[in-house]
Amino acid sequence: MPLPNLSFIKHFLTTALLIAGVHFNANAQQVALIPEPQQLDWKKGAIDTRGIHNIVINDSSLLPLAHSIQKILSPQKFQISFSKPASLKYITLTLDPSNQPQKSEEAYSLSAKENSITIHSKSLHGIFNGIQTLQQLLVQKPLLAQVDIMDWPAFKWRGYMVDAARNFMSLNLLKQQIDIMAAYKLNVFHFHITEDIAWRLESKKYPELTSPKNMLRNAGNYYSVADMQLLIAYCKERFITLVPEIDMPGHSAAFERAMGVNMQSEKGSDICKNILKEICNTFDVPIIHIGGDEVTITNPNFLTDMASVLSSKGKKVVAWDPGGSLPKGTYLQMWNGNIKPKQDFPAIDSRNLYLNHLDPLDGVVSTFNHQICDTSYGSDNKIGATLCLWPDRRVANEDDMIRMNAVYPIMLSFAERCWKGGNNINPASLIVFEDKLMSHKKSYFKNLPFPYVAHSNIEWQLIGPYKNNGNTSTVFAPEYVRFFDTAKLQNTLTLKGGTIWLKHFWHPMIKSHLQNPLDSTTWYATRKFWSNTDTVKNYWIGFNNISRSPATDSPPVGAWDNKGSTVWVNGITIDPPIWIRGGQKGNSEIPLIDEGYEYRPPTKIRVHKGWNTVLIKAPVASTKSEWQNPVKWMFTFVEME
After folding, report:
1. What φ, ψ does residue 501 adopt, rounded to 5°?
2. Residue 125: helix, strand or coil by DSSP?
């Protein structure tokens, strides 16, 4: 990585300083660190950082990073030098190529003691990672908990992908996401910028690619050469590798409209080669993604020819798996849940890591529990994972891509998993992580969408199944008793979570909460919750968390969903929202607006002092799904903060 310059520090530190506001436990002297370091040893006592006025470095390349610390601890004045001061508190940044030779280039050690803070690494990237941890440790300036940390990533590829081809994203919104990536130690920005809907990257050789007449959405919006160079530099300053994706030969209708040929034709193939050469000659990127999925391959040499062009330019190649045939050594990004890593093809895991299909609450949980590449720690053949944002459906405004897909809470869960690795995943560790997540929400994400509330301790009693013979309006025993004793009912099951998947729409590839969900059955779920007063509270309630990709129908007028789902609190039926587009037939060009609990006004429910009872009815006639309207047999009921 090239040496960072000072141009980014002011903008980046705005993000970093906010992150440093997480809760500080003065007694335990521990703070909420995400991702959690591999080795963490809290010491007694704390350092008063007001006495620190010196930063010691052993290499001039550390100057920009030293200045970044100076900004963090401002308004203190610092001296940056190459020798330790006598009898003073100081911060030391040390580059040591022999440091931790058995660990990643990104490894670092951090020690905060009575008179000094030291960060050691073999690389600038490692020092940068240590500074991200330091920023989170500085939660209650001027106090800093004393601690010893030895840290390294479990996986070397920790990526985040944005599809800016279907829905264009401004540079400001892209920078916002990149800043948060850097603060949580993600290091690959996968930039998907060509699609059926539009080609978003300027080509000097083929300017017709970005002509507004060839775009079906956000016409005229694309990334100029200067824009792309700015983003690449912005990423490098944060030790993030930008990986552009030029999707080929599928997802290429925009290319065909502009060029008048199919990519796999002889002429189309030559144009694609020229485009890749232009990208290689124009942009300083070491890795290029060429897609290769969801297309009938008519030219068996197409993808190998494209890979050869990139290899001849010294670039590493990434493609989707499943996809076309590619030479050994190609990085394969697994997107189908049934795919496994392949020998001689370094694997990147994106299975079940598509934000556009994840429910916010369960998305954090499933991502936290995800075992990357089916292993606890990375290897040369299992290099890591990429969290993907595919907002296929048109959005009303660009911020909806972040808000409706719960990008930030799930990104933090993903950062924890791909840095920490896949061991020690259990319900207790999830509860600990959730507490940290809520601390970060309260500090840094006050002014950004962060649709998540603590829910892992919510306990439901499920009652069923009752056979409804395809009639979801059939009434069963739990509805006859408003304040019933579940001990008197048969076939109860205890489950935890604010969102419960009775049967995931990709079951059994993705596990459901029920081990053996059956069609034409009705389940009930109940729990009690306490209120200190008679009051009105806000709740997230939902029965179909609509994916932000397919053209799914809006909920029917006067109902929560088309399955007959119902909710009662203290025996009173809770009415569904008055849907803005109730009954609207699904259309990819009609944005979602209030269909999801996480982006519509909460449901207000009057509760009484003491114990209150909620009862959920969740029936299904058939779980047979089709792409545009998948059957999502699920429910969400959780109090908002």
Report:
1. -95, 105
2. helix
Cα(51)–Cα(623) distance, rounded to whole angstroms? Answer: 64
For helices 225-237 and 171-183, the axis angle rounded to 10 degrees is: 20
362 & 287 share domain: yes
- Domain count along the chain: 3
Which residues, 6 or more positions from 128, have their beta carbon under 8 angstroms from its beta carbon?
4, 65, 238, 239
Claim: this prediction has a pTM higher than 0.90: yes
CA distance 604 to 531: 14
Decide which of 151, 186, 209 is a domain's last residue: 151
Query: Angle 52-54-55 (CA atoms, 0-180°, nearest 5)?
Result: 115
Here the tokens at position 399 are 């911020």
Backbone angles phi, psi at 12, to 5 degrees: -65, -40
C-alpha gyration radius of the chain: 26
pLDDT at residue 2 in the model: 42
One-character DSSP codes across 187-249: -EEEEE-B-SS-B-B--SS-GGGG-GGG-SSSTT--B-HHHHHHHHHHHHHTT-EEEEEEEES
pLDDT for 484 equals 55
Domain boundary among 151, 168, 198: 151
Tokens of residue 138, six digits? 């500085």
CA-nearest of 482, 479, 458, 417 to 540 is 458
Give per-residue pLDDT as tens, 185-212. 999 999 999 999 999 999 999 999 999 9
Residue positions counted in the chain? 641
Residue 477 and residue 399 share a domain: no
Closest CA to 595 of 328, 305, 392, 395: 395
Note down the domain range covering 194: 157-447
For 547, which DSSP code?
Answer: -
